[in-house]
Amino acid sequence: MEAKLIERLEAAVARLEVLSAGGISESGVEVSSDPSILAFDDLMAEYAARVSAAAEKIGGQVLDVTKLVLEAFSVQKKLLIEIKQTQKPDMAGLVEFLKPLNEVILKVNAMTDGRRSDFFNHLKSSGDSLSALAWIAYTGKDCGMSMPIAHVEESWQMAEFYNNKVLVEYRNKDQNHVEWAKALKELYLPGLRDYVKSHYPLGPVWSASGKKASSAPPKAPPPGAPAPPPPPPASLFSSEPSQPSSSQPKQGMSAVFQEISSGNVSSGLKKVTADMKTKNRTDRTGVVSSSEKETRSSSSSFSKAGPPKLELQMGRKWAVENQIGRKNLVIDDCDAKQSVYIYGCKDSVLQIQGKVNNITIDKCTKMGVVFKDVVAACEVVNCNGVEVQCQGSAPTISVDNTSGCQLYLSKDSLGASITTAKSSEINVLVPTGPDGDWGEHSLPQQYIHAFKDGQFETTPVSHSGA
Questions:
Q1: What is the predicted pLDDT for the residue at 245?
Q2: What is the pLDDT of residue 350?
Q3: Which has the closest alpha carbon to 158: 195, 137, 127, 193?
Q4: CB 411 within 8 Å of CB 392
Q5: Which of 120, 201, 310, 396 is the S-S candidate for 377 at Cβ 3.0 to 4.6 Å?
Q6: Confidence (pTM)
Q7: Strand-pair partners of 440
Q8: How many whole angstroms separate alpha carbon 125 and alpha carbon 94?
Q9: In the predicted model, is pLDDT for residue 339 greater than 60?
Q10: What is the predicted pLDDT for the residue at 10?
Q11: Which SMART domains is this protein grouped with (predicted)?
Q12: 275/62 Cα distance (integer angstroms)
């Protein structure tokens, strides 16, 4: 009897040792042979391989960023394996658990910093698309995230704006770039979306009796040592912090990713030493150079335009004003009774994630606007070089006194009535097939007026050989 008891204890100890090695789940099945893990391998083989093959033909930064995208997917697979052997952690533990994935995403986002690359749209679409991998952080309806399937779809919509630019730019120049853009989209839609739909529609399933996730508390610096620098100001969702559409504090998963990107504010402040003060600097003289005059004049002209603004006024009108160089502006809490007024923005991108009554884009330059549905109309007035993408329906689109406007229509908005006046270089891009191709149509800006039968007849000028 005693020998049997010892034998059973030894077997139990051996069992625990195998489990701690991380190769087998609680049910005795190897985690690597779990159906959901095998399906992830199929996802990589079918879709990721195609993106990689297209990137190999292009090379350079496109190949570099593609390798990082695939690295992020590989990290997600490792996290899925760990989840099957790990108990559900608290918020601090979840932050630490997601850290490897966040580090790879930060590398991708860093590639868009600094001087604008010739492949900026490739880099930006790759970086924005990786936010789809955050579906793995879904912990329930109160976590502050959309359901996993919806999160993947919404994340791709954020990246599709730049992906479409790649398709349009290289459509008649280099098919390798077109193939890369199509393959990147298919990696998420239908690739990742269908995978999540089949295996994790309600989020990842943590182990009930596995090991506990470790949350590494920050170590206090030794006495007299300087405070550590704060982490980079970026989260798992974006390369730059999105401007919130409301002033309410973040909760749930939003707090998790805010925690990832935040640091001790005071530790990031630089101490001003005596030699850094203006009165003690030797490189400062009373002579103002021409470059300084230009800088001061430009900054004063910016201040006259007013401060940047993104706010809901009187509960009915969203005001987006004087945004410069902001690529991640989002309005996500809107309804069909509200209007959106965009004024004086430059080199920025705004996403409107919901149905609104009316959208007006006024006096904007190099502005991108992505919206789902509009009840009345989308109006572009007094603008220069803007791009507008409708992902849902829009009964009316008007362009007035604008030079350079690209309109992207979805299948649901092909019946939109487009009105133009005193405008030039107006192009409309429509979907032409299941492969995500776009057909570009230029709206006429020159007309022939001929007097016939007692009245003038107006027809657009047709250019032969176009």
A1: 47
A2: 94
A3: 127
A4: no
A5: 396
A6: 0.58
A7: 429
A8: 26
A9: yes
A10: 60
A11: CARP
A12: 44
